[in-house]
Amino acid sequence: MTGAAHVEVTDLRIVAHLPGGEERVIVDGVSFAVPRGEILALIGESGSGKTTIALSLMGYARPGVRIAGGAIRVGETRIDQLGNRALTGLRGRSIAYIAQSAASAFNPSRTIMGQVIEPLLVHRLARRAEAEAKAITLFEALALPDPERIGARYPHQVSGGQLQRLMAAMALISDPELVILDEPTTALDVTTQVEVLKAFKTALTLSGASAVYVSHDLAVVAQMADRIAVLSQGSLCEEGSAAELLAAPRDDYTRTLLAAARPAERAPAVLADEAPLLAVARLTAGYGAIRNGVPAIPVLSDVSFTLARGATLGVIGESGSGKSTLARVIAGFLPRAAGLVSLAGNELPTGIAGRSRDQLRRVQLVFQNADTALNPAHDVFTVLARPLAFYHGIKGPAARARVDELLDLIRLPRNFADRPVQALSGGQKQRVNLARALAAEPELLLCDEVTSALDTVVGAAILELIDDLRRKLGIATVFISHDVTTVRAFCDQVLVLYGGTAVEQADRSSFARGPHHPYTRLLIDSVPTMVPGWLEQISTQPRAAIPGPQSARNLCRFIARCPIAISGSCDEIAPPLRGSADQNWLCHHHPAELACEATGARA
Amino acid sequence: MRWAFGFVRAMPLSGQIGLFFVVFWLLVAIVGPWLAPHSVGAFVDFDVLSGLSRKFPLGTDYLGRDVLSRLLWGARYTVFLGLGAALLASLTGTTLALLAAIKGGWTDEVLSRAMDTLISIPSKIFVLVLVAAFGSSLTLLLLIPAITYVPGNFRIVRALAVNIVALDFVQVARARGEGAVHIALREVLPNMIHPLLADLGLRFVFIVLLLSGLSFLGLGVQPPNADLGSLVRENVSGLTDGAPAILMPALAIATLTVGANLLIDALKPAGRR
Description:
heterodimer; B: mainly alpha; about 75% helix
């Protein structure tokens, strides 16, 4: 590295103050450099210090944290030697920050334009009219719809992906020399993520700013960054150009990250040929009052599938596709409006109140967010012992022994039983969350996005655990996810939901082989790959709102976004169900045409 | 014992001060009458509203009675009536609020509207009517503040509980098939115990003030007995002279209420597991 790098961090040390007056080193001797106009990615698990380092580039340390040593240079300025007043002049002007959640970064009671041009007005860099003109150019560069008028809206009136891009506009409006992006797409769907990443990359290239991109997702980083720095527990594992590092990682930890990003194929479950455990037939459900078997706000319509004992069904789709609703209906949280849900041949009553204790025990739902699914006032033993006492009447020393067994099962040390829930990490909480469901000895486990709140490495470990347990205990699993890669590697059957209908259903081998419904194709193509240049090749289309299940004469719901919609049939008649028992689609195209389309798109 | 000592040591200074005052006033309320040098209604001095002296450490009141003795007798009314009514109000309010939040639907609607009705009656007028109808008695003095402060407690607890009930862990308990009692006591209550205690402290202060106000109007504890509020009221003529007869009971009310709140605020971090 030559001395002309734009941003240079040397031997950075950051410490946190513990309540006892001691200090803990959270960033230890980290050095890296960003050449002018390039993007450096900081990658690592949560707790690796990546956000702390990114914030220190603005001279900011969170309360209780202190920059204890080292040098931070941006251009000619030594950030670590500046006082608060000088830093305030710098932030939002020459160094800008894009946070993970745009929804919480925007003030809901002010218009978007007012907030986007604020950095210019605060630093007195431009007059209002000039600033607004500049904002509109940026909106165009970020591929936002209706750039002239979108500024007049309020934050709740635009989608999550649009808001994230508007935050980028806010950051870029003062022509900063350094932009810090802190996991800006982690909270988004794959399809939205692609659009946002593309917009970010274009805008950053246009502005010529250097950037630091914080992420835990190697594939995203592979598309965005010129250089990658891998962090683990506050120290630097390895740093290098993106292409080299991904092709030939030198550090063991980098290899672990790479392995976690490519889930290994699991062997399919060995299934006894018997009646299915779970059968869902023509299920319709939603929110609001139910009239004639149709809810006021329909979410799911006409979904059918069966699941054998010990098998796994993967349910994929974007947010709003009804996947969580499906789990909630099966678990009985939400009454179904029409259709049947039966377990081992017996129909399940619609609501929790109607089900017997044994019926409740046999279906267990594992919530997405373990932070809210575990009572923060309890300890691990209390959490796990309750279902034991409630369903099986196990109390006293027997409960102690069973909790120990459960902790062994989820691979946590036995002394964790006495820990308060709040003292656990995200991954540990998710394990306990899983163990609580297993304590009931269920026959069906509903996993609702159980890994989406976790890091890649921790998430891969949880998946491994679920897969292992269902083999060992023979539990059937409904696995809900927006991650096609995981579902493909992990599940025996796949169900693709769009706008509340099952647009594609396939068993594992057919799904791997293809062809796919155009929507599934879009989902698969939207997953970032490690191949450099992938982001530039992929084409994105402006997306239309997903219509609800009751709209427009049962037409194909994907029509507004479908690249191969046939005028005269797709916009006239409801799509027929095509395919065989192993795989079927709701589409006007013949499977052969879909296969052609897929190969055509790839070539 | 050792545990209690450690507990006190772990508290911040403000909490220790609060604990000191609370324990002090509890002791006074319990053993005060035995320590009092004179009986509560005894006229012992011809000088009225006198200053501090060796014979009367806190001076004498507007009728020449010993202020120290009257304070020692009077503390029990304020402490026990205030604490009793505050606990009664909080227990009733919290129970109803948890019921409303967990059951939802019609239960919630009926309870909430009933509380709204109750809250719309001006508390002072409500008290005046009740006292006028039934005459002043200790039972009434316990019940009136309790009833007056139930709706406030209900509102706060219901607002807290509704937020907690929406969280996933309560959904999990519901999906398990748990009853309302388990959900209320084991899942919801532990997560709002601190705001609840803070509310209890505040109610206690309000009730002491309400009782004092009632005494001021002559509707509270009846002479010759007097609670701390009455002591302030009957010696109000000494205010211009700065007589200890009015300052001392006022100081007593202040230390009791401020002490109780300092203690409760200090329980927050210490009570966190």
